[in-house]
Design brief:
2 copies of one chain form a homodimer. Helices cover 45% and strands 14% of the residues of chain A. Chain A folds into 3 domains: 44 residues, lambda repressor-like DNA-binding domains (434 Repressor (Amino-terminal Domain), Orthogonal Bundle); 131 residues, Response regulator (Rossmann fold), CATH 3.40.50; 131 residues, Rossmann fold, CATH 3.40.50. In chain A, α5 packs parallel to α13 and α8 runs parallel beside α9. In chain A, α9 links the parallel β6 and β7. Chains A and B meet through α4, α5, β2, α6 and α11 of A and α4, α5, β2, α6 and α11 of B. Chain B binds a DNA duplex through α2 and α4.
DNA sequence: CCACGATACGACAACGTTGTCTATGACGTT
DNA sequence: AACGTCATAGACAACGTTGTCGTATCGTGG
């Protein structure tokens, strides 16, 4: 157990604890020589400030919370955690995770108590939590600052981090076009899903720019689940003039399309190119590997945590609505090829 | 923000803060009437003890850490977190996660500092962290108590939670037998992997019990990755007398077997039964769904966190080596059928 | 050489709890 | 009536840090 305290450092350095405190917190008012001496001692003794004492005194907890829902795959949440953790480590913060929909845990009171007791300095809110009005209300009622990751709506309500779904879908469509595809099908996500809408917009725009009138039957409805991808793919491939490439609004549905193709004896990518969106775990492990848009999830979460941590120095931050945009990129795997 | 403190409660209740403290911590020495009055007040004012003050004074942090490596899929880690979180919530603890292998974070110093600063009451260690001697050494050097989840070796080194891999594999094999399969192939995991070894043992024992001499060529080597499953499956299916059922030591490899079967034009489960082990996300989303052994990962982590929390009341716990066994069950999906 | 403003540092009181020790009654026993 | 015993409760000092304010010490300009 680390039993050395600020007092020990102070004694050995022959200074007051306040001076050590100043060094730790990079405050000014310490001479270079003294600072160096104290820093060496801290290093040598492996001293770490006691978080509890610190936060008791400073009213900061050095804790960043990540609030998430257990929904579908863990991949997204995992990436978020990894990213947020990077930022936290860098800044000497810790990361606490709070889950809001475990069966039996009323999301309201459960979350509220956890937040109260946790004394978080700030929260990172990935989807879908970042778009849940009920949860946002609870958080705001506590006066906590938070940054949303890839929110669906309510832009301007709070600081957030995002990527340009529409532009990404546009690029992907353009890439298929450049590969020689002309009949490009699209599998849509849920109607109320902002990202899905933006992805469809991107597809539509790219097609329009190239002078193509997208036939209504080229767009098949889906719900982001694999089964819906299979059904939608089946419908598209059953058309009199089936598309030569299918762009699914997420990877799961693209996987469904792969199944649909295989059911019809079509081989991918020879007979059909299939591309997705997300670059989740499926994309890499499927065979053939899925060409897809890589979402910088970890990076977005990292940026979010960073914004929070930076913001604590500046209280005005809370009321500002900052936004930070991060870059996607397209990952070329085996599921798409030129026609 | 919750600005009410123990002093407010004490004043309004007309008692000393110590008495309120006693009520909060369920200590004895408080009359029923007083206790009720204080409890009501706490409820009414929505008072939550300040964690920092509490842990500063009591030298307990009310923080459980989950240390994990970013390895392969997030599913396992996700389940662990969900389970541990359940236990933490119940007991009023918070859960902090620490990652040990993010690029650029030296696992040694990085973890050590995080642990020192974090002041965890205890750690939950899922695989593969629970079998990493280097990491265990660091943790033990800090004098932290920890419970391992499904460790591979070093039983007795610390308390742990586990399930009986061997028995599960035995059961699964028996089930295939009961479905009429006689030539049952097995795809092994990495040689140095304890669970893999136990699973193979289970398979062997079940076969032996039924008087079958397992031919060496029925067992194909694998490394838990999908590709190795594909190759191993290909080898098994290429035998003069191919197995009618293949039991892969994990789901990923079972997925590979599905691909191998499809490459050969065999349909699952009509021509070949395929079963896996883990019940990860792949098992449900594959087509056909994979019959597999469900590992109670979340439950194991929950039990681990519980053991830690219970143990804090009893310091002797640290030196004891407790173990808790949890039940698996077999999930029947579409990939296996009777012959 | 003095006054003066910086600069560098220290003393001391918070912060909100828990741990330890002590005080007060009520009650039963001799 | 005097005395222990028990249940209940409070006073007070930690815990390890930061915030506030005060005070030496130093360099500088007049």
């Amino acid at each position: 157990m680390s039993d050395i305290t600020i007092v020990d450092i102070a004694k050995q350095a022959g200074v007051s604890i306040k001076t050590v405190s100043r060094v730790i917190n990079r405050e000014e008012g310490v001479g270079p020589a003294t600072r160096a001496r104290v820093e060496d001692l801290i290093e040598k003794l492996g001293y770490r400030p006691n978080v509890s004492a610190r936060s008791l005194s400073s009213r900061r907890s050095y804790l960043i919370g990540v609030v998430f829902m257990r929904v579908g795959a863990y991949h997204y949440v995992g990436e978020v955690q990894v990213g947020a953790m990077r930022a936290c480590r860098r800044a000497g913060y810790h990361m606490v995770i709070e889950q809001v929909d475990d069966p039996g845990q009323a999301r309201g009171p459960g979350l509220e108590q956890a937040l109260k007791a946790g004394r978080f300095d700030g929260l990172v809110l990935p989807p879908p939590v970042c778009d849940d009005p009920e949860i946002l209300a609870i958080i705001e009622a506590q006066g906590l600052s938070y940054v949303r990751v890839a929110p669906d709506r309510d832009f301007g309500r709070s600081p957030y981090v995002f990527m340009d779904d529409q532009q990404a879908a546009h690029d992907m469509t353009a890439r298929l076009w450049d590969l020689g595809h002309r009949r490009i099908g699209f599998i849509d996500g849920p109607a109320d899903h902002g990202s899905a809408r933006r992805r469809r917009e991107g597809y539509m725009t790219a097609m329009a720019e190239r002078g193509v009138r997208v036939k209504p039957e080229w767009i098949a409805g889906g719900d982001f689940m694999p089964l819906s991808g299979l059904e939608a793919g089946d419908r598209l491939l059953g058309l009199p003039e089936p598309p030569t490439a299918i762009f699914a609004a997420n990877d799961s549905m693209a996987m469904g399309v792969l199944s649909a193709a295989s059911k019809r004896g079509l081989s991918v990518p020879a007979d059909l190119s299939v591309v997705g969106f997300d670059d989740g775990p499926l994309a890499e492990s499927s065979w053939p590997g899925l060409t897809t848009v890589h979402q910088p999830i970890a990076e977005m979460a990292e940026a979010a945590a960073e914004m929070l941590i930076e913001g604590f120095g500046d209280p005005r931050f809370r009321s500002r609505t900052a936004a930070r945009q991060l870059d996607y990129h397209i990952v070329e795997r085996g599921s798409s090829t030129s026609r």
